[in-house]
Design goal:
Elements: E1 35-38, E2 41-44, E3 82-90, E4 95-102, E5 107-115, H1 122-137, E6 146-152, E7 155-160, E8 166-167, H2 168-175, H3 182-201, E9 204-205, E10 214-216, E11 222-224, E12 231-232, E13 234-235, E14 238-239, H4 256-260, H5 268-283, H6 293-302, H7 317-326, H8 337-341, H9 344-349, H10 353-366
Antiparallel strand pairs: 1-2, 3-4, 4-5, 5-7, 6-7, 8-10, 9-12, 10-11, 13-14
Length: 368
């Protein structure tokens, strides 16, 4: 395992000019949603001032009874039939997630809203259609389902499950600044590996595995989202062995072969991203935290994955063994999802939803 050793390459690119990732400025683009009362009718305000609220609020949700939404139920396509309760957090640079209630039934749901006016071009619309289609065709306990998508007032709305605690990234930002415990990390990874096993079994590459795309609800259930960059290796009845696509905005999690942009890649790219995500969950940062993009590119193409420096936080040898196997620079030497599910770190440390409720959800509730 010579190549697997973590190597501190923080001095790499000292001569490179520090550059800011333009995607970091997206926070200013969210349009807050407000409602106005006109008689007995609730209508959407045309409020257009731009701001962002990142709070992960779920007041009173611990008192709600456990519920399962019916994927075959007919949900309303009129936004006025829903009452917004609170914001859950940002999904990406153009989408936001709200906790809501369907007025006619009192059913608690989540409404994902995308502001079409931010990028009203054909490619953008195609991406949205692709995402809705991808989510609608997938049915797995660890993948966030889309039940209905409709457009109103230049906003695209999607009815989905209420993952009240928000994403793992927002949870760490608000309550776990040093990352999660070893057992919580193992539990989250196990559930995400189940989702990845389902996707890879259908010849699909998630292509955006990271903490921001891992959601938790107040029952401790874990679901994967972020399917906008999903790649289907099965086209016209034929299964391709690899794919080619330019790297998106997930540069810190992207595998070296994806970064190279001149080589085909397969589902093993997801395995690399999972390894980086494991470090992110453990330490609330990736090995490439605050690095300029060019420095990340050079590091991934030339060197092994650098270490995450977190003095005072100790994880087991099995954790680092799992990570090192995942982030091997050679895709063929990375383990499969099935092999990772059988890895000692997952077998010894992963628990169930009760652990997430007792450690993560309760801590969030105490801060309300």
């Amino acid at each position: 395992m010579d190549e697997f050793s973590f190597e501190d390459v923080s001095e790499l690119g000292n001569g490179l000019q520090n550059e800011k990732n333009s995607n970091q400025n997206y926070q200013s683009h969210f349009v807050p949603i407000t409602f106005e009362e006109k008689g007995n009718k609730q209508t959407m305000s045309k409020h257009t001032s731009f701001s962002l609220s990142k709070k992960s609020s779920f007041n009173g949700l611990l008192n709600f009874k456990e519920r399962k939404l019916d994927p075959y139920k007919k949900y309303s396509t009129n936004i006025n039939d829903y009452e917004l309760i609170s914001d859950i957090g940002g999904v990406d640079d153009i989408s936001f997630l709200y906790l809501a209630k369907q007025k006619s039934t009192g059913e608690i749901i989540a409404l994902k809203y995308t502001d079409l006016s931010l990028s009203p071009n054909f490619e953008f619309m195609q991406e949205l259609i692709k995402t809705s289609h991808n989510c609608a065709m997938l049915r797995h306990n660890n993948i966030l389902p889309y039940f209905l998508t409709f457009e109103e007032n230049d906003r695209l709305w999607t009815v989905t499950l209420p993952m009240e605690c928000g994403s793992c990234r927002s949870i760490m930002k608000n309550s776990f600044s040093e990352g999660f415990s070893e057992s919580v990390v193992a539990t989250i990874l196990k559930e995400i590996l189940k989702a990845m096993s389902y996707l890879h079994g259908k010849h699909l590459i998630h292509n955006d595995v990271q903490a921001d795309n891992i959601l938790i609800d107040y029952n401790g259930e874990i679901k994967m989202t972020g399917l906008r960059q999903l790649i289907n290796l099965q086209q016209d009845g034929w299964v391709q062995s690899a794919a080619f696509l330019q790297v998106g905005d997930n540069i810190e999690w992207a595998a070296p072969e994806v970064m190279a942009q001149n080589a085909n890649y397969c589902e093993k790219a997801d395995i690399y991203s999972l390894g980086i995500t494991a470090l992110e969950l453990a330490f609330n940062k990736t090995p490439f935290d605050n690095w300029p993009p060019l420095k990340i590119l050079c590091s991934k193409l030339l060197y092994p994955c650098p270490a995450v420096k977190a003095p005072g936080k100790v994880f087991s040898h099995s954790f680092y063994d799992l990570v090192l196997r995942c982030v091997h620079r050679q895709p063929t030497k990375r383990p499969t999802v099935i092999e990772l599910l059988e890895h000692p770190f997952i077998q010894r440390h992963a628990k169930g939803p009760q652990l997430i409720r007792d450690t993560v959800v309760k801590k969030l509730a105490k801060k309300l």
